[in-house]
């Protein structure tokens, strides 16, 4: 299961109404029922604000989430870069979003979970689980 940046940010910030679903999915990874995959680009996106504001405890918390045994931070390779370029060209996504999608594809993820409406509408390479729609279904 691949995770988009906003998914992980929701977890770290305990953002409602997503926190319970995000926590449940991360528990499945933590407990070994699923493998979690995150692009190094997502790690970068999550770290910018805490680094800028010197929130060292938050930086440590990000490391704890990403260093969990069943969580894999996937480095950017040339193969991922080429796939991201194709996705960006075809789907008109941002460089970061195209790279995150390409990473999930290369990691063999069954889905990419996030809350990016543009990705949810445009991505065809992998099923995109749109958190807002999932939350709406649970209400």
Report what the structure shows.
By secondary structure, the chain is mainly α. It has a single domain (2-138), classed as 5'-nuclease (Rossmann fold). It has helices at 5-13, 19-30, 40-52, 56-66, 78-91, 95-107, 117-122, 131-138, and strands at 2-3, 36-39, 71-74, 112-114, 128-130. The strands form two sheets. A three-stranded parallel sheet has the order 1-4-5. The longest helix has 14 residues, at 78-91. It is globular and about 40 Å long. The two termini are 23 Å apart. The mean pLDDT is 94.
Identify the CATH homologous superfamily.
5'-nuclease
Gross CATH architecture: 3-Layer(aba) Sandwich
User: What is the topology, as strand order, of the major beta sheet?
Assistant: 1-4-5
Oligomer: single chain
Question: Whole-number average pLDDT?
Answer: 94
Distance between the termini: 23 Å
Strands, count: 5
Task: Describe the secondary-structure layout.
Blueprint: E1 2-3, H1 5-13, H2 19-30, E2 36-39, H3 40-52, H4 56-66, E3 71-74, H5 78-91, H6 95-107, E4 112-114, H7 117-122, E5 128-130, H8 131-138
Parallel strand pairs: 1-4, 2-3, 4-5
Helix pairs in contact: 1-3, 3-4, 5-6
Notable characteristics:
139 residues; two-stranded parallel sheet; Rossmann fold; 8 helices; three-stranded parallel β-sheet; mainly alpha
Give a quick rundown of the structure.
The chain is mainly alpha-helical. About 60% of the residues lie in helices and about 10% in strands.
């Amino acid at each position: 299961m691949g995770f988009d940046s906003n998914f992980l940010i929701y977890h770290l910030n305990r953002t409602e109404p997503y926190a319970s679903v995000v926590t449940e999915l991360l528990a499945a990874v933590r407990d070994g029922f699923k493998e979690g995959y995150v692009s190094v680009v997502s790690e970068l996106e999550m770290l910018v604000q805490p680094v800028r504001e010197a929130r060292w405890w938050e930086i440590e918390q990000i490391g704890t989430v990403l260093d969990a045994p069943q969580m894999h931070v996937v480095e950017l390779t040339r193969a991922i870069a080429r796939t991201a370029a194709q996705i960006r060209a075809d789907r008109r996504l941002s460089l970061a979003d195209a790279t995150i999608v390409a990473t999930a594809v290369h990691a063999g993820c069954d889905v990419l979970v996030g809350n990016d409406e543009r990705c949810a509408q445009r991505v065809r390479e992998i099923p995109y689980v749109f958190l807002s729609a999932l939350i709406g279904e649970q209400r």
